[in-house]
Structures are given as C-alpha cells and as structure tokens.
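in:
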C-alpha cells in the first residue's frame, strides 16, 4: 500500500494555478515594464517557483510510489514521466523549465532580464495539463 501525501500534492497543484495567473498577467503587461527591474525580477521569481513546485510534486510522487531516487531536477521529471504520469511533449517542456534553475539561482548576475522568457507564455497551459496528468496518474495507480 502506498502513502500518498494528498494534502501536499493538492496544495502544490493549487499553487500552480497562482503561478499560471501571475505569468498571464506578466505577459499581458510586459511591454509596460520591460525596463523595470521589478517586472524583470517578478518573471524570475515566477519561473523559480514554477521549477520548485513542479519538482516538489515530482518528488512527492517518487516518494509515494517508491520510485528510484532522483539525482537531479531533470531526473525528477524523467522518472515521473517514465512511470507514465504525463506525455512526452509535456516532459520536454518541464525539462526546459527545470533547466532554468541553475541560471536563475546560481548565474543570476548574467541572467538576461530584458527579454520575456518563452516559457512564461506557456506556463498556464503547461500547468493545466500537468495538474490534470498528475491527478489522473495518482488515480490510475490507486485503482
């Protein structure tokens, strides 16, 4: 029998909705703030929280279903995908997202703040699919 921390997974899935809404607002208003450091930092924070939330959910799934230990953020995405939790195209998008972690948290001085990152535009639809896929995966594993 698996122990799934539904509360933590649900909290993080709900948080994805907040990040999706924030990214939509940022995209709609970006042209007004491209030279504004606050807007630029807001984009970085949305991306960083998106990475952490996706990998937190992945880690919770790995723990719940006793999957192999992950060696990196990318590995979390790969392991959960390998169990059939989400589609190949979604996996590729999530990998692009988690690969931004190092530049965002370690190479932030060199980060290109002037441009809107292409992933910001697709976060809403990506997270909608991710949330639905995770919920369906949990349901199918428990049947």
């Amino acid at each position: 029998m698996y122990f799934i921390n539904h509360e933590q997974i649900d909290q993080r899935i709900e948080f994805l909705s907040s990040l999706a809404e924030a990214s939509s607002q940022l995209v709609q208003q970006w042209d007004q703030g491209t030279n504004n450091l606050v807007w630029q930092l807001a984009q970085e924070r949305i991306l960083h929280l998106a990475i952490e939330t996706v990998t937190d959910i992945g880690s919770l799934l790995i723990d719940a279903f006793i999957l192999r230990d992950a060696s990196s953020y990318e590995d979390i995405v790969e392991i959960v995908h390998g169990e059939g939790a989400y589609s190949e195209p979604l996996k590729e998008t999530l990998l692009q997202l988690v690969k931004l972690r190092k530049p965002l948290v370690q190479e932030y001085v060199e980060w290109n703040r002037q441009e809107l990152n292409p992933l910001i535009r697709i976060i809403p639809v990506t997270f909608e699919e991710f949330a639905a896929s995770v919920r369906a995966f949990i349901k199918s594993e428990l049947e």
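note: Helices lie at 6-33, 37-64, 73-82, 88-98, 101-105, 118-142.
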